[in-house]
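Note to self: user wants both folds in one dump. Writing first protein now.
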Amino acid sequence: MSEEIDENEALLLQAMSVDDTPPAEYKATAGKPLPEGEKPAKMYDIVEAIKTVSDPEIMINVYDLGLIYKIHQEENGDINIDMTLTAPGCPVAGILPQQVADAAAGVKGVGQVEVKIVWEPAWTMERLSEEAKAMLDMF
């Protein structure tokens, strides 16, 4: 397990590098295939689970921060999530994607979950939800 964590951390550090080489793709995974015949989860429940993951520096969940760019649910219950970070050097970059994967995988009716870090488009404050803006007193 620690070798897998070390490899994931190395990939994330490469993805966050500022040189001219294209960043490596970083993915976090969780869950297992749904048993045949099990009904897939509702998107609402998946989003609510993702909202339990907060950026520890500002205590706003990753969904309302606008870090979740895409949630795609397969017919078999598998979930693919594209997310970003507020900045490539984000100090919690190594843990947030896995926390999102684990949260989504914990929902009944969710199979395997893959969370991919994407850098385009770059995150901006405009991606904040109205609720997050209110928490930050930004009207």
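First done. Writing the second protein, which came from a different request thread.
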Amino acid sequence: MNTDQQPNKLRWGILSAAMIARKNWRAFSQSQYSTLVAVAAREQSKARQFVDECNAQFPILPSVEAIAGYSELLARTDVDAVYIPLPTGLRKEWILKALNAGKHVLSEKPVAISIADMDEISCAVRSSGKHFMDGVMFAHSARLSSIEKSIHVDKSVGNVRRVASHFSFKADDDFATSNIRSQSEMEPLGCLGDLGWYNVRFILSAMNWELPTHVIGRTLVGYPGGSSSNAGLVPAEFSGELFFDQGRTASVYCSFLAELQQWSHVSGDLGHLFVDDFVLPYYGSRTSYITHSPVFHVRNSDFRMEDRRQTQTCNEYSEGHPTAQEVLLFDDFSRLVLAGAPDNRWLEYAEKTQRVVDALKKSADNKNAIVYLTEPS
């Protein structure tokens, strides 16, 4: 057992050798405040393969242990926090077990398959006094902080009227039958949970964390999803409308069928803001977004549209660097825990995101009915 004490770093374990965990292995290797102690899989051989392959590319010292069984990892006294990239259908069970074992928890998203399960998790987090976050990497980027400042402090677009967000990728031909994200037992939210979670998260940030009053969701294309008794198809392509007080609106589009796009657009009464890679930054050492305040001049027969766009840049790498958003996620989490100051604000962000996603899916499963998140006046 790895017993090296590193009081300036939070000691982590990973529950599952999932693909996304490989990206976060690299984040652990570059984090100032985190160290990875062990990885657990159902079979030790799978955990060992994961550790060996990741370590060959991005070494972590001291060596990371490969463990058979998630419970065995939770029983370790040299693990302070766990990262849980298990399928959504299994997350609640292992989040609750991790909290019961005294561990802080970083969960992949969506956190749960329903708001009822999210509420159970939230209650357990608050009772435990442990820190909880979901794995939305862009929420920790310097760029999102700059975007929030542009919208809410500098008022670069004026009063926000509309937010539109699109996240899609074209899945391969076998996805519908072989990928877990098409199966209702483990991933009943389909593309809405896997991709739409990010759309909703950006929208809530742009709306200063105000929940919509009501939503309408529509599964445009769905997978049969296997033999589950869960109501409705597993979304493969989904659209949704969110309605806020004072006539403000937002739209969500997410899809496993359209080619890769990941953009968000904020419209206000003085201008608009656009970011075309809001989830995974395009490769490079800087991230950016654009603010627009176009002006239309008419002088007799002279009709002139002036662009007046400004590109805002942030000095942060897209990946593979201490400034990259996935590294900052673990740094932010670990720094809060090491300071003895778990912050329930992050739990509240996850709760609100889950509540909107749950309402959108409920609407889609009920013939696109209006679903209220607050009591109608």
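Dump finished. Worth passing along: Residues 345-365 form the longest helix (21 residues).
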